[in-house]
Amino acid sequence: MIHINNLSFGYRKKHLLFQNLNLSLFKGHIYGLLGKNGAGKSTLLKNMVGLAYPLEGTCTINGKNASKRSPEVLENLFFLPEEIYVPPLTSAKYVARTACFYPNFNEQEFYSYLAEFEVPRDAVLDKMSFGQQKKMMIAFALATNTELLVMDEPTNGLDIPSKVQFRKIIARALTEDRCVVISTHQVRDLESLIDTLVVVHNREIVVNEELDSIAEKLLFTTLPSAEGHDVLYAEESVRGLNAILPNTEGVYSKVDMELFFNAIINGNPSVVQLLHSNPLQNAF
Amino acid sequence: MEFKNNEAIYLQIAAYVSDNILLGKWPPEDKVPSVRELAVELQVNPNTVMRTYEYLQNQEVIYNKRGIGFFVTPDGVGKVKKHRRERFLQQDLPEFFRNIFLLDIPLEELQQRYEHFKTENFTTK
C-alpha cells in the first residue's frame, strides 16, 4: 500500500527530521504511529499523503508518488489532520460539495456514523463544539471508503462515550482492502484496535512490528522485584515492578504500549535488539 | 470489554467466547457472531478476533463452514471444559496450593467450605 524509500525530510535543510527512513505499510491493518512530541509523527503522515515533499527518497501509494498528488491517488486516500477546519455549512451541504471527490463515498454510511456519534445532521458545522466537529469529520473520513485512511490524533477532543463509539466504528470499518494509520499519544484509547506499532524516534523508524510478534518476543509482567529475572526494562508501580522480559516460555502477555514506548525512548537498546533478533521477521 | 493486563487480548476473547458456550448462550451447532460483529461489540481489531477464532478452531471448539461463518462444534462444551481443566490444574492450582500451604489452611476446612460453597451457589431451589 505505502512504501517509503530512503526518505529524508526536514523543514530546514540543516535540521533533518528524518534521514534515510524506510517504511512499508499494508492493507488490512490498523497501524499505531507513536513518537515523542516533535519526533515528526504528523510530518511523516504529511509526507505519506503528499502534503509535504521529501528532500530525498520517495513515498509511494500503490506505486504512485504521493507528492505528485494525482487525482487517482487523492481520491483513494483521506487524511484527517489533528486540527480541522470546517466551513459554515450543514453536513448535507458539506457532503454535496466534497463527497464528489471520493468515488466510493457512501452517504448512507455517513449518516449512520453521524447517528452513532450523536451528531445532529442539520447543525451548521462551524457552530458545533470542537468534539462534534471532529466526530463529523471522522464520520466523513470513514464514509469516503478510501483504501488509505490516515488520522492524526483522532481521539483528541472526544468525550468518553464517543471514544467507545469511535472504537466500534473503526472495528467495523477495517476491511482487507483498507489501510488505517493512526498517530496518537492516547494509547489507552486505542490499544485494543491497533494491530501494528510503528515508533518514530531519533529520525528513524525504530519499530514497525505487529503486536502479536512483539508479544512473542517480549513478556510484559509485574514482578515483586527484579531479582533473579532478566529484566530488560522496568518501571516502579504500586503493585511492584512493571517489567519487560525476554519471552522465553512462549507465554502471550498483553503488550503494555506505554511501557514499551518508554523503554524505547529511554534508549534501551536491548528491547529493540531482541525484537529484531529474528531475521525472518525483518525480511520485509 | 475491559481487558486485563496479564494476558494477550486474543486469549481473553477466547475465554469470553468459551464462557458463552459453557453458559449455553451459544449452543452446539449454532453460529457464533461473525469476526466483524464480535470485533465491533468488543471494540477490538478484527484481526485479533480472527486470531481468537483460529485458536478456538485448533482447539476444536468452533469450526468454519466456508462462506457461512463459524459454528460451535457438537462437543464444543466438552472441549472447552477439557482445556479449562488443564489450564486450571497447571496454572491456578499451584498458586492455590502455595497459598493454603503458606497460610496453614487444613484440607478438612477446605472440604467443609467447599461443601458450603456448593450448597450456597449451585443448588437448584
Query: How far from one another are the termini of chain B?
Result: 32 Å
Number of domains of chain A: 2
Kindly report how far apart the N and C termini of chain A lie. 13 Å
The CATH class of the largest domain in chain B is: Mainly Alpha
The SSE string of chain B, one letter per element, is: HHHEEHH
Strand order of the largest sheet of chain A: 6-7-8-3-9-10
Regions with little confidence, pLDDT below 50 for 5+ residues of chain B: none
Average pLDDT number of chain B: 90
Q: Fill in the CATH topology of the largest domain in chain A.
A: Rossmann fold
CATH structural fold name of the largest domain in chain B: Arc Repressor Mutant, subunit A
Strand order of the largest sheet of chain B: 1-2
CATH superfamily of the largest domain in chain B: Winged helix-like DNA-binding domain superfamily/Winged helix DNA-binding domain
Question: Summed up, what is this model?
Answer:
The complex is a heterodimer of chains A (284) and B (125). By secondary structure, chain A is of the alpha/beta class.
Write out key terms for the chains shown.
heterodimer, A: 284 residues, alpha/beta, Rossmann fold, 2 domains, B: 125 residues, mainly alpha, Arc Repressor Mutant, subunit A, 5 helices, elongated, transport (chain A), AAA+_ATPase (chain A), ATP-binding (chain A)
Task: Tell me what you see in this structure.
The complex is a heterodimer of chains A (284) and B (125). Chain A is an alpha/beta fold. Chain A contains 10 helices and 13 strands. In chain A, the strands form 3 sheets. A 6-stranded mixed beta sheet of chain A has the order 6-7-8-3-9-10, with helices on both faces. The two termini of chain A are 13 Å apart. With 125 residues, chain B is mainly alpha-helical. Chain B has 2 domains: 9-76, Arc Repressor Mutant, subunit A (Orthogonal Bundle); 87-122, no CATH class. At the A-B interface, helix 6 and strand 11 of A face helix 1, helix 2 and helix 3 of B.
